[in-house]
Each structure stands twice: as C-alpha cells, then as structure tokens.
Amino acid sequence: MTDFFSGIEPIKFDPAAQSDLAYRHYDPDEMVMGKRLEDHLRFAVAWWHSFVWEGGDPFGGRTFDRPWFGNEMDLAKMKADVAFEMFALLGQPFYCFHDVDIRPEGDSFAENTRNLEEIVDYLGEKMAAGGPKLLWGTANLFSHRRFMSGASTNPDPDVFAFSAATVKTCMDATHKLGGENYLLWGGREGYETLLNTDLGRESEQMGRFLSMVVEYKHKIGYKGGILIEPKPQEPTKHQYDYDVATVFGTLQRFGLEKDIQVNIEQGHAILAGHSFEHEIATAGALGILGSIDMNRNDYQSGWDTDQFPNNVPEVALAYYEILKAGGFVTGGTNFDSKLRRQSLDPQDLIAAHVGAMDVCARGLKAAAAMIEDGGLEAARAERYAGWETPEGKALLDSDLSAIADRVLKEGINPLPRSGRQERLENYINRFV
C-alpha cells in the first residue's frame, strides 16, 4: 500500500451527500432499461492522463509532483500500486493503457518488450486480486522521436517494422490481461505537407498495417474487439483517420469494415467540426460503433484540452445515440480526461472522476428516459412518413424518367414542411 490517497475513503452512492467525494447519480446497481447502470456505462480510467501526465503546457513545464515519476521499473510498479488503489476507491470496472504508460522506456525493442512483459505480470496479479478489468490496451506510436513522420505511414520501412513489432507485443499483453479490446491509436498517421509526401503510398501502408493487426488477432485466438480512434489535427495537419466517415472509407477500401470498429472521443469530434453525437450516430449507422473516450474541449481554445465532462445535455445526446445503436458490447466509457495543471492534490484526481461519472450517469438516465418516452423517434418517424407509403418505397427502385413522368402526371408540387427544431430542443430540455 502507498499513502498517496491516505485519508480518502471508497466512494459511495449517497444522493444527499455534501462532500464532492460521493456519487449522487451513479448507483452501479440501478436498473435502467433492464440493465445495471454499471453495465450500460462500463467506466474506465485512462492510465496516461491520471498517472503519467506531469501538468505541463506549451508555456510551462511540470506542475505535478508524483513520487512515481521516473523511468525505472520500481517506479513503474509504484505507479501501478497507486493506480489500483485509486481504482479501488472509485470502484469503476475497467482501465486503459498505452505500453509506455505502464513500462519504463528501454534502449531497444528487446528491452521495451522485457519491461512490458514484467509489468504486465505485475498488473495481472493485481487484477487477479480483485482489480478492474482491461477495457483496452494500445501502443504509443507517436511520442518518441522515431515516430515524428508516423508509424504505419512512415517513409522509413524500419519505423514501420518497429511499429508493427511493438503492436504485436502490445496485442500479446492485452490478450494476456484479458483485455476486451485492442486499440489502434494513430496519433501521427498523417502528414504536414504534400511537398515531401507520397499520399497514395502512405495510405496503402496504413491499410496493410491494419490488415496485419486483424490477421494477428485471429492467429493468437484473441476474441476481443479491434478499435481505431479518429484523430483530426492531432498532431499532424492532415490526418488519414480524420473522423468516423474517413475511417470507415479506409476500412471499406481494405475490406476491414467488419473487423474494426471505432473508439470516438468527444474532443476529437469537435476538432473535426462535428458534434460528439454526430460521430456516434454516424458510427452507429455504419455499424462500426465500438467505444468512446469521454472528455470535453475548451471551446475557446481550439485544441483538444481533454477536460473532464460536465455538460449533462451534451452527454445525454451522446448516450441517446449509443443506446439507440444497441449500447456497448465490448466497448465502454473511458475517461480520456486530465486534471488542469493547477489541480495538484490527490483529492482533485478522485473528485474529477467522481463528478464525471455522475455527469455520465445523469446523461445516460436522461437518454434512457427519452428513448422510453419515444417522443424524439416519433417526431423523426412523422418527418419521414412519406417514405413509408407505397409511392415512397417504390421511389428508390425507380429511375429518373419514370419519376419525371409521375411528377408530371400527378402534378406533384410539394410545399416545404417545418423541421420543428426549436420544439425538439425544448423536448430534450424536459429530460436534462
């Protein structure tokens, strides 16, 4: 045991609590639409922001003083001890990591692999003793300078090889820990300028890399999901994995749309010029909705600030689309969120997650109430009702000449109909 969280008791559900270290809305055993709230939300803590981030920004360095900061195995194990102590306090069912979050960085691929295997065994012991499960593991293929020009899309085949080998070890680690998904996080899969870029070649490299991942999944008998995360403008100017629609186009091009789903982050949706619910609804319509990273942006900054969610109406609309798509299967709600650099205390880290979990619980319950009420879907059905008539159903099987003849013969001259947007916005506000 460490003393980092000393004095903090396990977080309980207490709607009347005055402390900010209590759940007021998240009761994991509450039944919502026939399922426990915990099983709907499937919360996960992000290892990197919670235990790795040092509190720096472009104008200033580290502000957090954590006793486990360093690049030695003993410190990595201390970090794991603290992490699992926090997990026990929060009681969330999952966590997520990159390889570099949990292991020391070595001088070679072989040393990285040895370090990863040692710390995975350590995490496995903690999980077996009652710790949370692994929602997904992934490889960090963007922080080290070797990845400055990408990983799978790198012009240097040695970087491609190093990246592929690293993903192999991380898939092995995820498989060993019983991870429910493996995530492909393409942080530098893009380019800055076409002047030095063979876009067609890089796209082919990325497609082959994705195919290798799927092939290896089947080779080792891994039953979990494979996810890819859209990452617009983060950090390269032109990302090949810009948004859900772009990712789907790539998957479809290489015949992988049945094998890989998306992990959608709220902050990335905003950077792509979309809303979170738009990206989720798009993934649901395309059949590739896997998991989400729950956070928010500072809308004045124009960058992915990874703040903890605090906007119930936004969250409710996101969970509405998730529930409409059938809910999570192997995915869940990962808090890819970090403290502000002035929030120094251990209590801040706990309180941030408690508040975020409450916001998500409130949002999901509001979304479930809207679905059970049926008002929004009834309004949508009314708007598209004409397509359910015999004439509407026949229209898409017709051709331009036949349609033109019908319009002329029947004197079709439609008038516009109200979209009733404000009324629907008022309807949403009745639930949130």
TrEMBL record:
EC number: 5.3.1.5
GO molecular function, one term: magnesium ion binding
A GO BP annotation: D-xylose metabolic process
Cofactor binding comment, as recorded: Binds 2 magnesium ions per subunit.
Top-level taxon of the source organism: Bacteria
Top-level EC class: isomerase
Binding site for Mg(2+) 1: E229, E265, D293, D336
Compartments in which it is found: Cytoplasm
Broad class of where this protein is predominantly found: cytoplasm
A Gene Ontology term for the protein's cellular component: cytoplasm
The UniProt record lists the keyword Kinase: no
Catalytic activity line of the entry: alpha-D-xylose = alpha-D-xylulofuranose
Keywords linked to the UniProt accession: Carbohydrate metabolism, Cytoplasm, Isomerase, Magnesium, Metal-binding, Xylose metabolism
Binding site for Mg(2+) 2: E265, H268, D304, D306
Cofactor(s) this protein cannot do without: Mg(2+)
Active site per the UniProt annotation: H98, D101
PROSITE patterns: XYLOSE_ISOMERASE
NCBIfam families the UniProt entry points to: PRK05474.1 (NF003998), xylose_isom_A (TIGR02630)
Complex formation: Homotetramer.
Protein family (similarity comment): Belongs to the xylose isomerase family.
Protein name: Xylose isomerase
Source organism (scientific name): Poseidonocella pacifica
